[in-house]
Design goal:
The chain is α/β, with parallel strands linked by helices. It contains 20 helices and nine strands. The longest helix has about 35 residues.
């Protein structure tokens, strides 16, 4: 900001406006410095900036359960929930003349952990034609470590967040002869079926979902900073770690493993919404080729049409590629009527989009104030937002068309008012510009008003990053994402991850678990 030519000639109101603008710039610089300090501290491994307590808007607007007046329900019999593996009778040293009065039960839950080594003596026969015939190994035996041990390693690493060195130490103390390299092989080798099941979960989730919420967090891969993206709802969760957090990257993830590029009506409509030039859209629409198997074929098509050589801003090749990715998503039947709920990060603004109210209110909550008048204005606006948020929650529980217009008018009254606090007024105007996305719940009452579920889901990735750091190989990255996705999906489907691993690794007597994609599809609301 350049200084005025003659500061002495400014009036009192002009000086006040100048001071407020300078205070706003100072606040922006303070936020930038704090973010840079946090990043430097994270890279050095030290503590970041102190966390600001959440506003508590969502919890405060929850309806309080009414008093039932009855007695609190007990947790039920423990014995009925347990399978008894052993009955032991303990004798009492009763004096002569005592009368036997039966038994007093006492349950003790214990865990048996011990190494179990099996030597398979496989018969070998030589057939009359000279070939050797050897007895096959039992189902579930894959290598020199049995299915129960492999299940234990996978559960401890992905669900228990135990590091590889600690797993090696633990198993050796149990009496298992195993090395760090062998542990890593058990974690990433031969896991294609799990990776495919995780992709199937995403496809099933995006095929019939009314909504999904999304979020991302920092990640490290091959000693470079990257990002882990979460996609999920009440039925499933899916993670993917990539080197970018662009909209192009997000659309690639939404393809659920499909690699094609499609120019169809949805793709062309996307390009128009992104203001791609009409002559470029006409070239793509009039060309006979509409489907391209992979990125190389699509890039060659853009080169032949001369689109890649254009140097205007925004890049036409990027927007055209985003449109072709969106066309592929629609061609595979994904996101047919799905609302994407996000925290207002630009890369997530595709298709039908709704914004998180908790993040919107947080902007007001974290606003820097410099006077009592500023703090009073901030407090009044927060109170109005809290009340309006409670009304939205009531509407989502019991939608009433008559309330829709009233809520829209109330939104306008709150976010178009002038408080005298310049920074707050600008923030309110910015939020008002997002009216259609903040009030998406009025048209789709089934969607959530926040992305709390995504933030809860992605914490396991944050914990894994803090404990184990980054991944070193693509296979390790893909397995970490896939198993954490499967673990979270099992939780949402009411399945023990231990039982799921037992079913997939053919552990004897493990319960059968259907393919998770089928469960996700069956649990999607109609």
């Amino acid at each position: 900001m350049s200084p005025p030519p003659n500061i002495d000639a400014l009036s009192a109101s002009e000086l006040k406006g100048l001071v407020l603008r300078l205070l706003q710039e100072v606040a922006e610089l303070q936020r930038t410095v704090a973010a840079q300090r946090e990043e430097i501290a994270r890279l050095k491994g030290g503590p970041g900036r102190p966390s600001i307590k959440p506003s508590g808007m969502d919890q405060a607007t929850q309806p309080r359960p009414g008093k039932t007046g009855g007695r609190r329900r007990g947790r039920g019999s423990t014995k009925a929930k347990l399978a008894i593996h052993e009955d032991r009778t303990l004798r009492a040293d009763a004096p002569p003349g005592s009368r036997f009065k039966g038994y007093a039960g006492f349950l003790v839950q214990d865990l048996v952990i011990r190494p179990h080594v099996t030597h398979f003596r496989r018969e070998c026969w030589q057939a009359p034609d000279g070939r050797m015939v050897m007895a096959p190994l039992p189902e579930g035996i894959d290598g020199h470590f049995g299915p129960e041990l492999r299940r234990f390693v996978l559960a401890q690493y992905h669900q228990g967040q135990v590091t590889v060195p600690r797993l090696v130490t633990m198993l050796r103390e149990f009496g298992i002869l195993i090395s760090k390299r062998q542990i890593v092989r058990l974690l990433i080798a031969g896991k294609e079926s799990f990776l495919e099941e995780a992709r199937g979960v995403l496809r099933a989730g995006l095929t019939g979902a009314a909504w999904v919420s999304v979020d991302d967090t920092g990640a490290r891969h091959k000693a470079r900073n990257g990002f882990c993206t979460q996609i999920g709802n009440r039925q499933f969760t899916w993670f993917a770690t990539t080197g970018s957090k662009s909209r192009l990257n997000f659309l690639q993830l939404l393809r659920s493993g499909h690699g094609d590029y499609v120019v169809n009506a949805e793709a062309l409509a996307y390009m128009r919404r992104r203001a791609l030039a009409s002559p470029i859209i006409a070239k793509l629409a009039e060309h006979a080729d509409r489907t391209f198997a992979d990125r190389a074929a699509w890039s060659g098509h853009l080169d032949r049409l001369g689109i890649s050589a254009l140097t205007v801003n925004p890049d036409p090749a990027t927007i055209a590629t985003e449109g072709a990715l969106w066309g592929s998503i629609k061609a595979h039947g994904l996101l047919t009527n799905t609302v994407i709920v996000s925290d207002d990060a630009g890369q997530f603004n595709v298709g039908q989009h709704a914004l998180c109210w908790v993040h919107a209110e947080r902007l007001v909550h974290k606003l820097d104030t410099f006077s009592d008048a500023h703090r009073a204005a901030q407090s009044r606006i927060r109170a109005l937002i809290w009340g309006f948020y409670a009304d939205l929650k009531a509407y989502s529980r019991r939608p009433a068309p008559a309330r829709k217009a009233a809520l829209q008018a109330s939104f306008d009254r709150i976010f178009t008012r002038s408080t005298g606090f310049v920074t707050l007024d600008r923030l309110l105007a910015r939020l008002h510009a997002n009216k259609s996305q903040l009030l998406k719940v009025l048209d789709r009452p089934e969607i959530p008003l926040h992305t709390n579920s995504s933030e809860n889901d992605i914490r396991c990735q944050v914990t894994k990053r803090k404990i184990s750091g980054g991944t070193r190989s693509d296979a390790g990255r893909d397995c970490r994402d896939a198993f954490l996705s499967l673990n979270k999906t099992c939780i949402k489907q009411g399945i023990a991850f231990w039982d799921y691993l037992g079913a997939r690794l053919a552990v004897p007597a493990a319960p059968a678990i259907p393919h998770l994609a089928k469960l996700v599809s069956a649990s999607q609301p109609p």
